[in-house]
Write a structure and sequence with these properties.
434 Repressor (Amino-terminal Domain); Rossmann fold; four-stranded parallel β-sheet; 15% strand
């Protein structure tokens, strides 16, 4: 028969003190002096005491757990956001449950159900590329469980959103290529159903219009930004009678892969074709030439998300007045686009 679970009452009886004092000491409450805390913690460790989080959660109606749903975990940008969230959350006594939708609405829905059933105190989400129905978040809204969207957000849901000005970033990237003398700029992007890609496309259009260039739909290629999709896109472009003189690509990994294909085909970057990526991932700094990109502060974004959510949970803030947070971003100029020395 298994040994009986040790409780705070067992510790209290052995030390001849109240169970309330034991409970406070195990939570590092300042009302209990250091010597008493040490006696209690030492005995707890000796007896193999384990905190009954389940019972505590029932009393407080909190699990001290935050849910995070992202499209993919193999993205350096997403990894940096999660690292930022975890840094702030852990220091505040919260744990994370992290899941990935793999860019599928059905998986995102299943992940949301799992988070709800695990009674997370709050949910942080970046949407899958093809999510159109947001009903899986209704249960959180009805229970008033705080919900924060970041990067890829649901504009129609009244919830806090943390992002960058993607339209401005797309404009800056395209304008830079125009200033370098490029006139036939192809934009390779993701599913424009999502705000990040739709807004970057709008920025691209705005920069073209400002420079007096007409917009051509054939100069925009929307796909899943996978290696296969980039390979097919570049091969399609190289078959055109008139080659583009620049590529603005919506993430650095895809930009780096495109650069390697162009070099294999004997094209020079940036002389024959300039390239601008997006995110300022590590890969953008190690290619030859290094890739001009838009700095996207992932870790800063993660820390901002966690602070906003935890302040709300601790009654130090109110999500209802924090509807949108826009973080700064900037162009990082490198060799892949600098045709004018």
């Amino acid at each position: 028969m298994a040994d009986r679970e040790i409780t705070i009452y067992d510790i209290a009886e052995k030390l001849d003190i109240s169970a309330a004092t034991v409970s406070r000491a195990l939570q590092d409450h300042p009302a209990v002096n250091k010597k008493t805390k040490k006696r209690i913690n030492d005995l707890a460790e000796e007896l193999g005491y384990r905190s009954n989080k389940f019972a505590s959660n029932l009393r407080t109606q909190k699990t001290n757990t935050l849910g995070v749903i992202v499209p993919r975990l193999n993205s350096l940008f997403m990894s940096s956001v999660i690292a930022g969230i975890e840094k702030v959350a852990n220091s505040a006594g919260y744990n994370l449950i992290i899941s990935q939708s793999l860019e599928q609405e059905c998986r995102e829905k299943a992940n949301a159900v799992t988070m709800f059933n695990n009674r997370v105190d709050g949910l942080i989400v970046s949407l899958a590329s093809n999510t159109e129905d947001f009903s899986h978040f209704d249960s959180f809204l009805k229970k008033q469980i705080p919900l924060i969207f970041f990067d890829r957000v649901a504009e129609s849901i009244h919830a806090t959103k943390v992002l960058i000005d993607n339209q401005k970033a797309g404009y800056i990237a395209t304008k830079h290529l125009i200033e370098q003398g490029c006139q036939h700029i192809v934009h390779i992007t993701g599913n424009v159903l999502r705000n990040v890609y739709r807004d970057r496309l709008e920025g691209y259009k705005n920069a073209l219009a400002e420079a007096g260039f007409s917009f051509d739909e054939d100069m925009v290629m929307s796909n899943d930004l996978s290696e296969l999709a980039i390979q097919e896109s570049i091969e399609t472009l190289l078959k055109r009678k008139r080659l583009p003189d620049a590529l603005f690509i919506s993430n650095d990994a895809s930009a780096a892969f495109a650069l390697s294909i162009l070099k294999e085909k004997g094209l020079r970057v940036p002389e024959d074709m300039a390239i601008v990526g997006f995110n300022n991932d590590m890969i953008s700094r190690v290619t030859e030439p290094a890739i001009t990109t838009i700095n996207y502060p992932g870790a800063e974004m993660g820390e901002s998300i966690a602070r906003i959510l935890i302040n709300h949970l601790n009654n130090d803030g109110d999500l209802s007045v924090t509807s949108k947070v826009i973080l700064d971003t900037a162009l990082v100029e490198r060799g892949s686009s600098l045709r004018k020395k």
